[in-house]
Amino acid sequence: MNGDLTRFLQEWPYDPEQNIRLVDAEGGHQVLQVRQPLGIEQYELDGRPDGARPNGYDTMVDAVQTRLAEHVGAQGSETGFTLTHTECAAMQNEGVLFYYRYLMLYQLNDFDRVVRDTSHNLAICDLLQRFCDSDSDRVAVLQYKPYIYRMHAAAQAMRHIQLNDRAQARETIKAAIGVIQAMKEVDTPAFQFERVRSVNYLRSTLDKIDTEHDDPADELASELADAVAREDYERAAELRDHIRGLT
Questions:
Q1: How many domains does the chain have?
Q2: Most buried residue, 36, 92, 170, 187, by most Cβ within 10 Å?
Q3: pLDDT tens digits for range 99-114
Q4: Does the residue 4 lie in any domain?
Q5: What are the residue ranges of helices labelled H in the chain?
Q6: CA-to-CA distance for 158 and 166, rounded, in angstroms?
Q7: Closest C-alpha to 68, from 80, 54, 57, 51
Q8: Is 141 contained in some domain?
Q9: Domain that holds residue 120
Q10: What Cα–Cα distance (Å) separates residue 169 from each residue in 34, 83, 182, 214?
Q11: What single-letter DSSP state applies at residue 186?
Q12: Are 67 and 111 in contact (CB under 8 A)?
């Protein structure tokens, strides 16, 4: 093989309206592929999106949580446990991979996996908030926590709507608005922007849930997925820039 990808790209021409697909991979499982203007990205559906196993663990979060458990076992408490800069950077980079994947999964209406992936990124936020001594490492991720929680709640609500449980969907969104409004302040413009935008987005979602539709699950899923896709690629560019700054 000479490494030329031309044939693969020609077989799947770029179309921004149809640029996501699931394909069968070796080993009997499916992978998610995204056609970009100049190439194709491939994501594992489970585990880390890139299929890597940092330090032999499923994710970097698992590796850090194991080290934390070992510390508690040896010391009797979490006191004295601190994240290294390397761990903070590795978790942030891992979080970006999960972010890219849950954007695509949301558009595929795979809300169970979106909830799973946003839970992973919220776990990163929790570890950084509790154990990171570096303000810059901590803030780099926590400034986006309102957005992560917004996506988490929206996916949970959509899951309830798919089950025709509008009442639970409403309660989920209302609770999420309260959580975001009560979040500990992070002194960056990004945090302020994301908190206001996330609350407004969830209030808009609440209005959509309260509006009668012939097929609420399909229509809401389509509208919300379009909104997510429209907003979040701008965020992807910002995160790429930040990662470059870490290397």
A1: 1
A2: 92
A3: 999 999 998 999 999 9
A4: no
A5: 6-11, 60-75, 85-107, 111-131, 135-142, 145-162, 166-181, 189-210, 216-246
A6: 9
A7: 80
A8: yes
A9: 78-236
A10: 29, 36, 20, 17
A11: -
A12: no
CATH of the domain at 208: 1.25.40
Q: What is the pTM of this model?
A: 0.84
Number of residues in the chain:
247
Q: Using alpha carbons only, what angle is made at residue 139 by residues 247 and 80, rounded to the nearest 5 degrees?
A: 95
Could you report the per-residue pLDDT of 61-108, keeping only the tens digit for each?
999 999 999 999 999 999 999 999 999 999 999 999 999 999 999 989
Q: Which residue bears the tokens 């991720």?
A: 141
Task: Tell me the pLDDT tens digit for each residue of 163-175.
Answer: 989 999 999 999 9
The span from the CA of 149 to the CA of 119, in Å, is 9
On whether residue 50 sits in a domain, the answer given is no
Structure tokens at 21: 């697909």
The DSSP 8-state label assigned to residue 55 in this structure reads G
Is the Cβ–Cβ distance between 228 and 151 less than 8 Å? yes
**Could you tell me if residue 216 is inside a domain?**
yes
